[in-house]
Amino acid sequence: MASPKKKLQGLVAATITPMTENGEINFSVIGQYVDYLVKEQGVKNIFVNGTTGEGLSLSVSERRRVAEEWVTKGKDKLDQVVIHVGALSLKESQELAQHAAEIGADGIAVIAPFFLKPWSKDVLINFLKEVAAAAPALPFYYYHIPALTGVKIRAEELLDGIQDKIPTFQGLKFSDTDLLDFGQCVDQNRQQQFAFLFGVDEQLLSALVMGATGAVGSFVSRDLSILWSN
């Protein structure tokens, strides 16, 4: 039930959150943003409220409204809308996960909590498991970005046996420059058919050689979509 109708792969736009001059969210342009991505860039998958979207700088209510607007405006236009629901508070993250399921999002992603940091793989997985359980019908993705979280648990270590703990786990957004870690993630999990989404635009070509199945970034274009056209 947690498997998407179509595997999340290819280009995934990490959307910005449009603001007015007064610092309020400009919801009125999100519909135009959807049309631009689809018609001008050929991109139909998006990653909302992540780093590019400054999700952790928004209030919970703002994050909810942004997610709602992207899902609503993307209906029948976008293939998949993945909502980042990570937060320092477990309860807030669970609330956002449940909300994403209620509004019809196609998946959720979570970063590691980064103030009181998890000190081991087991502690981190327990946090992720609790969030995933709040939206048991949605595919779950781990957002690995150690440069910003300061959590140095290797993604390769985290993925070992992760579906035994988180049955809805479907893949990884890998936003780190450690290509050795990324390559080991791919090599050691080929049988699981996970989505390996690379998040460092400058190293994308190297990641493709190593087996990336997609890319989540702020630089997306029709020219790059040819990499997954087949």
TrEMBL record:
PANTHER family: DIHYDRODIPICOLINATE SYNTHASE (PTHR12128), N-ACETYLNEURAMINATE LYASE (PTHR12128:SF21). Its EC number is 4.1.3.3. It catalyses: aceneuramate = aldehydo-N-acetyl-D-mannosamine + pyruvate. One of its GO terms (cellular component) is cytoplasm. GO terms for molecular function: N-acetylneuraminate lyase activity. Pfam families: DHDPS. The lineage of its organism: Eukaryota, Metazoa, Chordata, Craniata, Vertebrata. It is found in: Cytoplasm. This is N-acetylneuraminate lyase. InterPro entries: Aldolase_TIM (IPR013785), DapA-like (IPR002220). Belongs to the DapA family. NanA subfamily. Pathway: Amino-sugar metabolism; N-acetylneuraminate degradation. It comes from Saimiri boliviensis boliviensis. Keywords: Carbohydrate metabolism, Cytoplasm, Lyase, Schiff base. The keyword Kinase does not apply. Homotetramer.
